[in-house]
Amino acid sequence: MLSDIEIAQKNEMTNITDIAAKLGLSQDDIELYGNYKAKISMKSLRKFQEKVKDPSQRGKLILVTAITPTPAGEGKSTVSIGLADGLRKIGKKSVVALREPSLGPCFGIKGGACGGGYAQIVPMEDINLHFTGDLHAISIANNLIAALIDNHLQQGNALNIDPRTISWKRCVDLNDRALRNITIGLGGKMQGVPREDHFTIAVASEIMAIICLSQSITELKDRISKIVIGQNFNKEDVTFGQLKSTGAVAALLKDAIRPNLVQTLEKTPAFVHGGPFANIAHGCNSVNATLCALATGDYVITEAGFAADLGAEKFMDIKCRNAGIAPDAVVIVATIRALKMHGGVPKTELSEENLFALEKGFENLATHIENIKKFGVPAIVAVNKFVTDTDAEIKKLEQLCSQYGAKAVLSEGWEFGGEGTKTLSQAVVETCEVPSNFHFMYEDHMSFKEKVETIAKEIYRAGSVEFQGTSLKKLKEFEEKGYGNLPICVAKTQSSISHDPKAIGAPKDFIFPVRDVQLYAGAGFVVILAGDIMTMPGLPKVPAAEYIDVDDDGVISGLF
Predict the structure, then answer these.
(1) Is 99 noted as a catalytic residue in this protein?
(2) C or N: which end of the chain has fewer Cβ atoms within 10 Å?
């Protein structure tokens, strides 16, 4: 069997102008980045934004989410891409909108984010590595803010900023644990003001969130200016706008705000833009990419990071609230292998039939089905098929899903591309015809404490919430400063519905700990840090970087 990168390299891509033509776009509507990548022009972006203000002009929006991730793998991106191809196979005008990969996982343990097998977006090497430079622009913009803050301290500190309160962190798009906690400004008077500092991975930066939620340069500048960078010695918030350099930061991002257009192996148009993680950020591709897809496709496939307790919840409560959109249907990706793992089977024994473990592990999928129903959206389960799945296990899973009012359909896009998802595609079309009664999990006017407790109890199934340290005090201060209507973005482990990565299956009635909270005034949400969550990942003992190489012709190998 060919590897993912070998399959992608054997594929003959179509010129991106032909892909754009499928969406009714001419070469004047796009900016070319070579033959196979393009950015949407600002003029076309505004046209699409205006078009989708009329609900009758929008395509159907299908969110792809998943069960809680396991080392056995679920294949959410593979299903999303395969589904978009499958919809084209049954005569539907489909478009897929996905996040951009981060270099951290590419060189770490998770790998790339372009799908797999015969359900991929291409050029996969470019998309997984530098692509069109969006993440680099975001990193530099983030670090320009950091440099301007420290320069302000060095040049006399006219704003009277208390260095101990500076909350803005530097970033880099790599997994580098050595940068989590650092000291800067050492070496003497001319080398800066010494203080403690921190790095996050670029996809956890507030700038990433701002890019993904802003629809225009004007909105981008407004959000950047509202970023709270720390407090002065009178304990008053200091915003980045007070440093009078908002325009310079926005100038670095003028192209990064525009969605990227690429293609699947089967030439389905794909908007790939923005890349916040769902465990430490809000986990969705940009609003602009989704709006472009809704304006140009009859069926739009998009995904949210990790499982429904993280990515799907944030898609609903943050992205949909911000953009004024709502999903018509939700696809929950599951594998029999992963469900057996949630049922207690070790990874080495997953190829053996085990109906008991499957039923026990199904509790995890059942929780996610229930959660999606709580948002009032019809759901369908996509069973990402592996060769080790037995007929008895497939039948058992179909029965269990049926008991919870969700149809289970096999997805074989990894092996067969769009041909392997035609049945799933037809089921999705039918599900989109079921009336949706979409609503948010909490209302804007609720207190932050109530919002956290609602998510913890309704989505995670916690028995209670423990606000540790000064977290509750800080939330009340945010409310007093006028931020009370903002949504929350919970940063927690992706490995469990709870905060405990070791709690597999469907844990219930646990104490959900809120370790700290952070105000992202520019992005427009409050981050809730639960448990030992890191915003700067580290590399594993054997990083994926050890397997990646390039030859004299520039051909890359080992990139999944």
Answers:
(1) yes
(2) N
Q: Which of 107, 315, 386, 448 is catalytic?
A: 386
User: What does the angle CA 375 – CA 379 – CA 381 come to, to the nearest 5 degrees?
Assistant: 140
- What is the spatial distance between Cα 335 and Cα 339, in angstroms, rounded to a whole number? 6
Alpha-carbon gap, residue 272 to 126, rounded angstroms: 12
Superfamily of domain 450-530: Formyltetrahydrofolate synthetase, domain 3 (3.10.410.10)
**Res 532: pLDDT:** 83
Q: How confident is the model at residue 8 (pLDDT cuts 50, 70, 90)?
A: very high
Residue of 37, 39, 58, 76 with catalytic role: 76
Q: Which residues of 108-134 are buried (b: 16+ CB within 10 A; e: fewer)?
A: bbbbbbbbbbbbbbbbbbbbbbebbeb
Every domain of the chain with CATH number 3.30.1510.10 lies at 134-251
Q: For residue 78, indicate whether it is catalytic.
A: yes
Whether residue 378 has a cis bond before it, omega within 30° of 0: no
Q: Which of 359, 288, 239 is nearest to 41 (CA)?
A: 288
Q: Residues 62-75, buried b or exposed e (16+ Cβ, 10 A)? A: bbbbbbbbbebbbb
Q: Does domain 134-251 have CATH number 3.30.70.100?
A: no
The CATH 3.40.50.300 portion of the chain extends over 4-132+256-432
Looking at residues 87-115, what average pLDDT do you find?
A: 92
pTM: 0.96
pLDDT tens per residue across span 205-230: 999 999 999 999 999 999 999 999 99
C-alpha distance across the termini of the chain, in Å: 13
Contacts of 514 by beta carbon, 8 Å cutoff, 6+ apart: 452, 465, 466, 467, 468, 471, 472, 528, 529, 530
Q: Can 386 be counted among the known catalytic residues?
A: yes
Selected catalytic residue, list 414, 510, 512, 525: 414
HEC secondary structure over 468-506: CCCHHHHHHHHHHHHHCCCCEEEECCCCCCCCCCCCCCC
Neighbours of 161 (CB within 10 A): 21
Whether 110 and 306 have beta carbons less than 8 Å apart is answered as no
**Which of 271, 306, 512, 560 is flagged as catalytic?**
306
How many residues in the chain?
A: 560
| Domain 4-132+256-432 -> CATH class | alpha beta
Write the pLDDT tens digit of every residue in 315-360.
999 999 999 999 999 999 999 999 999 999 999 999 999 999 999 9
pLDDT in tens, 430-454: 999 999 999 999 999 999 999 999 9
Give the separation between CA 270 and CA 87, rounded to whole angstroms. 13
Closest to 330 (Cα-Cα) out of 403, 407, 396? 407
Q: φ, ψ for residue 55 (rounded to 5)? A: -55, -30
